[in-house]
Amino acid sequence: MMGMEKLIVILKISSVWCLLLGCEIIIVEAAPKASLIKSLPGFNGTFPSKHYSGYVTINGDIASSKNLFYYFVVSERNPRDDPVVLWLNGGPGCSSFDGFVYEHGPFNFEAGKTEGSLPKLHLNPYSWSKVSNMIYLDSPAGVGFSYSKNTTIYKTGDLQTAFDTHDFLIKWFNLYPEFVSNPFYIAGESYGGVYVPTLTSQVLKGLIAGEKPIINLKGYIVGNGVADEIFDGNGLVPFAHGMALISDEMYEEAMTSCKGNYYNPPNYKCEIAVEKINVDDTVATVWLNNDAVRKAIHVNQGSGSWSLCTSDLLYNGDAGSIIPYHKNLTAHGYRALIYSGDHDMCVPYTGSQAWTRSVGYKIIDEWRPWMTNDQVAGYTQGYDNGLTFLTIKGAGHTVPEYKPREALHFYSNWLEGKQI
Question: Helix, strand, or coil here: 282?
Answer without folding.
Answer: helix
